[in-house]
Design a protein that fits this description.
By secondary structure, this protein is an alpha/beta fold. The radius of gyration is 18 Å and the shape is globular. The chain starts with a strand and ends in a 38-residue tail after the last helix.
């Protein structure tokens, strides 16, 4: 049996994807059914992962559509996942976030309301909530205890989708709360590694750390090398041999490369809007006295951030 590596989100184009790999295949013997859904507007990949035996499933990193020009939201992308689940006779058990994303809104809250499925994220999201609550100057009534999700996963924690075991690996660096979900003989590594020609994720957001990112990557690259080929998938072996930022590199060289590169990157266009929603479990801000919901943008909170003068095509 072979092992698979999948990207969870934030590809800069459909063929630039992330790594996911496998350590539980020998334990479970399960090869999950994986379907990726590319969101062109944000360059994100959403996944439906199913236990082939029980047909129980999980959604990973769902997208809530947002038009920044009009301030409007839609559920088209999330509804596409639900239609796929219905059409294939699946039962949704879990809605999983790998981390609070900066480039798109999460549809976790919407999907929870529609299906009642359990939601989960890494337990260090609480640290991110506390950090960003200060940036947004949010009132004391806003909870920073992770209660917006049903389950906060610790490093090494295990749970099941159907009869398929899932192992959680803490994967900090891109954000301090990032996790990897290892499901059967596949794993989902969020924004840590892209396809080898694109390198690695940035580590300059508040709470990010290039040294931690390097150590996370090394942990992932210690997983088995063999993989099965699929869309939005790379292999451990290919990453070891060809990743633009990892091959022929050590920790100090990587930290220097990543830090210098990140200085030239513009802030993601939706970051200040998206994190308000994503750190609340994919819930929009509550309605105010007029019945409307409002996003809050902290002005000049990041004066060091680029205004967009990065190299052409440089996104991560």
């Amino acid at each position: 049996m072979t092992n698979a590596i999948f990207e969870s989100v934030s590809a800069t184009r459909p063929d630039r994807l992330q790594l996911a790999s496998p350590a539980t295949a020998a334990d479970t013997g399960v090869s999950p059914d994986v379907t990726g859904f590319y969101d062109e507007a944000t360059g994100s990949v959403q996944y439906v992962v199913a236990d082939p035996v029980t047909r129980k499933s999980a959604i990973i990193d769902p997208v809530l559509d947002f038009d920044p020009r009009s301030g409007s939201t839609r559920t088209t992308s999330a509804d596409r996942l639900l239609k796929h689940i219905e059409a294939h006779g699946l039962t949704l058990e879990w809605i999983l976030d790998t981390h609070p994303h900066a480039d798109h809104f999460s549809a976790t809250g919407y999907l929870k309301d529609m299906t009642g499925a359990s939601t989960g994220i890494g337990e260090r999201v609480v640290e991110m909530q506390r950090l960003w609550k200060a940036f947004y100057n949010l009132p004391d009534s806003v909870p920073v205890d992770g209660s917006q999700w049903d389950r906060l996963f610790a490093d090494g924690e295990r749970f099941t989708v159907g009869e398929m075991e899932v192992r959680v690996l803490l994967s900090p660096g891109h954000t301090l709360s990032s996790v990897t979900y290892v499901m059967g003989n596949a794993a989902f590594v969020h924004d840590t590694l892209f396809m080898p020609d694109s390198g690695t994720a940035r580590a300059d957001f508040p709470g990010g750390d290039a040294r931690q990112l390097w150590r996370t990557i090394q942990r992932i690259l210690q997983l088995p090398s063999d993989t099965r080929h699929a869309c939005w998938e790379s292999t451990v072996a290919a990453q070891r041999a060809h990743n633009l930022h990892v091959k022929n590199c050590d920790e100090s060289k990587f930290v220097k490369l990543r830090t210098e590169r990140d200085r030239r990157l513009p802030m993601p266009a939706l970051m200040l809007s998206a994190l308000q929603v994503n750190l609340a479990g994919g819930r929009l801000p509550p309605p105010e006295s007029d019945g409307r919901r409002y996003l809050k943008i902290p002005l000049n909170a990041f004066p060091y951030a680029s205004w967009g003068g990065s190299e052409p095509g440089l996104k991560k």
